[in-house]
Design brief:
There is one protein chain. This protein is an alpha/beta fold. It contains 12 helices and 13 strands. A 7-stranded mixed beta sheet has the order 1-9-8-5-4-2-3, with helices on both faces. It has a 3-stranded antiparallel beta sheet with strand order 7-6-11, with no helix packed on it. Helix 6 links the parallel strand 4 (about 125-135) and strand 5. Helix 10 (about 295-305) crosses helix 12. It binds pyridoxal-5'-phosphate (PLP). Pyridoxal-5'-phosphate binds next to helix 3 and helix 4. Pyridoxal-5'-phosphate binds near residues 88, 90, 133, 185 and 197.
Length: about 375
């Protein structure tokens, strides 16, 4: 049997970072510096600098990050929040967690991000906010979405869990809205060795609320001003992310190069539907997604050739039990693509001969 090609493989990256990590593990354990403290502070500084942002904080995971962003800006009971149905379920969960009402919009057929025209159809007098999800690492139509938010006086949030360092017209995503959430789930483009997340906000006042919400309502010991959570970023994860962050640009470039190889190999093959990403969007390919009509047959061929695949995601969120009945638009595009989408292996250390085997298998079968 040929060597297995995984969808994502973190072992090569660890082998490269192992010495540095071991030294850090020994240091932090010797110091017992597990909660808050210097490693978290340093990562917050480093990540803000990397994002070109002024205010933000580490937190426990990407789902809590989005919930915190919404709560910091007072989104809650009675508010409608427009979000794409074509996303990971966590985006919708966060809306429900603050007591708001999710209203699902359709996606575009070109790059599968939220459709601005569908957003417009969903706006009512109860609409309070829009969540732009940069799905697969592809920036949403930020000009159009920003215009809609300004015209209707809406808050704008970005779910940037899959899109670290993606750019729209040269500006890093996460900087367009009032708040933005990031995930450092291990398999994300920047991944911790466990759960971790990050929230960006726009000013010092909201930053203070954010810090309080993350840590039991306090800024200092026993100063419990508001009802908060324990949703702190672990110092262990912060230290790990400090070691990884300097590599993020190179890892991103490597993903883009593999996506380019796939794009060139599949171009002109009308059996393989490629994402059509506008020139002013610089995607970071958390997922490399193709659309195929005979998906079962393609999956069979991938299995036969020992190649892993993914489906992101098998069901749109608006058909999942907790989220039924929240749609008002017809989800034509979202439902059309969900039966055809297929994610191919992509990760920075993926060897060339793996990429070639995936290409050959895809072109041979389809
Ligand atoms: C991963 C992900 C999340 C949730 O992040 P966690 O860190 O796993 O909680 C939210 N939204 C999207 C689009 C994601 O891909």
């Amino acid at each position: 049997m040929t060597q297995k090609i995984p969808l994502c493989d973190l072992t090569g990256q660890y082998a490269h970072l192992r010495n540095e990590m071991m030294q850090f593990f020994d240091k932090i354990c010797s110091e017992s510096a597990f909660i808050k403290g210097k490693y978290v502070q340093l990562f917050e500084q480093n990540y803000l600098k990397c994002m070109g942002a002024d205010y933000g904080a580490g937190c426990s995971n990407g789902t809590s990050a989005l919930k915190l962003a919404l709560e910091v800006y007072g989104v809650g009971a009675g508010d409608e929040v427009i979000l794409p149905s074509h996303t990971f379920v966590a985006t919708a969960e966060a809306v429900r967690h603050v007591g708001a009402i999710p209203v699902f919009a359709d996606c575009k057929m070109t790059d599968y991000t939220i459709c601005p025209e569908s957003i417009k159809r969903m706006i009512t007098h109860k609409t309070r906010a829009i969540i732009a999800v940069h799905i697969y690492g592809t920036p949403c139509d930020m000009d159009e979405i920003t215009d809609i938010c300004q015209a209707h006086n809406l808050l704008l949030f970005e779910d940037t869990a899959q899109a670290h360092l993606a750019q729209y017209r040269g500006k890093i995503v996460g900087n367009f809205g009032h708040g933005a959430s990031f995930s450092f789930y291990p398999g994300k483009n920047l991944g911790a060795y466990g759960d971790a997340g990050f929230v960006l906000v726009k000013d010092a006042t909201h930053h203070e609320t954010l810090k309080r919400l993350i840590d039991h309502g306090r800024l200092a010991k026993y100063d419990h001003e508001i009802n908060g959570y324990n949703e702190r970023m672990d110092a262990m994860q912060a230290g790990i992310l400090n070691i990884k962050l300097p590599h993020l640009t190179a890892w991103t470039t490597a993903r883009q190069a593999i996506a380019g190889q796939y794009d060139r190999a599949f171009a002109g093959d009308d059996r393989i539907g490629l994402m059509q990403i506008a020139n002013h969007k610089q995607a970071v390919y958390h997922v490399y997604c193709v659309r195929v009509k005979n998906r079962d047959k393609v999956i069979q061929a991938l299995n036969d050739n020992n190649i892993a695949y993914g489906i992101h995601y098998p069901d749109p969120v608006h058909v999942m039990p907790p989220f039924r009945g929240f749609t008002r638009d017809n989800m034509v595009n979202t439902e059309a693509i969900s039966a055809q989408i297929l994610s191919l292996p992509i990760y920075p250390e993926m060897p060339d001969h793996f990429v070639e085997r995936v290409i050959k298998t895809m072109k041979g079968v389809i």
